[in-house]
Structure formats: C-alpha cells, structure tokens
C-alpha cells in the first residue's frame, strides 16, 4: 500500500477532503483546462495515460456495454471504448433529460471523428437518448472522482450524481453483481478516507487507475442496492425528472415506497386543495349521449385562475382511466389545478398556476410510456384556463 501524499487529520469530513485535494492539485499545477479545479472532477495531467490502463483489465475485453461519465479526464476512456467498438453510454447532463445517451459515431468514422465523439461536444452531436424500457446490461462503469481510497471508497464533487446514476441503473435492471466499477484519478487523489464517512448510498469502486499504477481494491463494502427513496425529497424529484418515472414504476409494481417528507406534503395538499369531478358534453349541449363527450376533472386551488399555463398530454392508451392518469400525475409530483379529460380522443389537458410548474411537468412526463404508448407531452398551443373545446 503506497503512502498517500495528502495527509488527512482526525475528524475530517467529505467536504474537507474535497477542499484539500482541490487545493493540492491547484498549488502543484497538476491540472489541465478547465481551471480552477474546485467544485469539479479534476482534469489532471496524465489523464489520457491513466485511461490507457483500462485496456489491461480483463473486464475490458469482455465488456460489451460500457457507461462512462462525461467528465473531461475520462475523455480518453470514452475514446478507447469507441475505438474498441463497445456500446458507449454517457449519462445525460445532471440527469435532467433522462439517464443515458448512447453515442453513435457516423458510419465509417475516422480516428478524428471518433475523437470528437468522445468529447463533450461529440456527446451532444452524436448521441441518442436511451429510454427506461430499453434493454441495457452495463458490464463496465467508469466514473470520475475527487478522492478515492485504496479500499475502494470514493468521494465525488458533492452532488451525488454518480451514486444516483448507479442506484437508478439497479432499479431499471441495467447492472448486476458482476458489473465492474473503475475510477480514473491522479496519484495524489488516492487518500485514506475514513470508513465512517461512507454511507449506504455511496458508490464504491473495484479498480483505481492512475498515471503510474492499477489498484485492485477488493472492496468489502457493497454497492448501492437501488434508490433509497426515504432519502429522496420533492426537491430532488423536481431536479431529476426521470426519478418520477422510476417512482411511478415502483408504486405501480405494488411496492411500498415513501419518499422523504411525503406524508407532510400529502397533508398540505389535502388541506389546500378541493376536488370537484363533473361530467358534461361540450359537443352536444342538449345533453344527449355522444361518443365525443369529455370529462373534466377539476382540482382547484384557492387562488385566482388568471395566468394559467396548460400542458397537453396526448397518445394516451385506449382504455386508460382518468383515475389512473391522476395516480400517475401524483407519482410524478405533477398534480394540476385542473385536468380536462378527453378519453375518446386519447388526450388530456392539465392546467398549472405558472409557466415554471407547467414546464417541470413537461420534463417529468417526457418520454414516459404507459402500456407501450409513449406519451406526447408539450405546452398547449392555446392557453385557455376555463375550456379546451378544440385540439391543440
């Protein structure tokens, strides 16, 4: 075991460790662009050399699908995967638009084109989103780190995305106990992390690659076994819309899932919202039956209805009940002020109190599938607060 160059005092916190590593790298000029490295996964000098060591791992030759984080120091690793014709998955930025993007180089790509595909710009230009229903089995994961110990304990930049990505992959069945996790860092980033700082949601690593060595950690701590919903709050659900989709799936599967502060939130909703359900026929005012009838489910808050923003939801499955749509909206933290149900046309309109809430709903429901149907979700062309007589 090599002696770490960065010494840690007793009682150190994760935040302390990050600061010491970032300061050391800056003080010793060990990083390339972007600088300063604070609040980043450091793009250390020698990153490409460290990435080359991945070719010597047994898992590399066997892996077919590989997930590599979008951090700058892992660019060499992404290039290696593309050159080896692996299926390369890269997490979407801050998980705003989903979990993965699949990198698809142009046909007959040259070395230079592959190099571009491995960059952040290439990830934007040569990738397609991978839905939650896609059949994905990741054999190898490459993550960036701010600090890591030879025992396999890892500290990121403090936002928790690598940990959450792994937990989400567990939930969608994309990883198994045989999936290998590798991190690539500068030698100075290998430090003695106290075990008490590692929580059950923290991702551990199996291999550490530096510019000078390969470290097999033989980590004894288990990796996250899925999303710990009791640690997920409504703020996180809003920041990472795809979490809403996974939460809905868990509840639909009959699992008892409760998010942090959910009971308090439910109590507030009940106390502030009154529900009124009425049926009426907008296309046949005489009141006789008609196949084009619309059902309006109104959930009105005690506030002025001016400034309402409407979301259109289309391509609903035939036979879907309004109660099922309401359950889905609750699971995705997207309860509207009013829901106008047009089941015969397989669509619905959702009224929200402002643009921001409506746009968050569009993001949360985007690419969501119900009974094989991918919902079409967008802001309605007509922002009408009281009726929706025509199509958008």
What does this structure look like?
- With 392 residues, the chain is of the alpha+beta class.
- It is built from twelve helices and 18 strands.
- The strands form four sheets. It has an eight-stranded mixed β-sheet.
- Helix 4 packs across helix 5.
- The longest helix is centred in the N-terminal third of the chain and has 14 residues.
- The C terminus is likely disordered.
Q: What structural class do helix, strand and pairing data support?
A: alpha+beta
**Helix fraction by DSSP (H/I, runs of at least 4):** 25-40%
Number of helices, counting only DSSP H or I runs of 4 residues or more: 12
What is the average of the pLDDT values?
A: 84
Could you tell me how far the N terminus lies from the C terminus, measured between alpha carbons in angstroms?
65 Å
Poorly predicted parts: 263-305, 383-392
Strand order across the largest sheet: 4-3-2-1-5-8-9-10
Topology (SSEs and partners):
Blueprint: H1 14-27, H2 47-52, H3 58-62, E1 65-68, H4 75-83, E2 87-91, E3 100-103, H5 111-117, H6 120-125, E4 127-130, E5 140-143, E6 147-148, E7 154-155, H7 161-171, E8 180-184, E9 207-209, E10 214-216, H8 234-239, H9 242-252, H10 262-272, E11 273-280, E12 294-301, E13 309-314, H11 322-331, E14 338-342, E15 347-352, H12 355-365, E16 369-370, E17 373-374, E18 376-379
Parallel strand pairs: 1-2, 1-5, 5-8, 8-9
Antiparallel strand pairs: 2-3, 3-4, 6-7, 9-10, 11-12, 12-14, 13-15, 13-18, 14-15, 16-17
Helix pairs in contact: 4-5
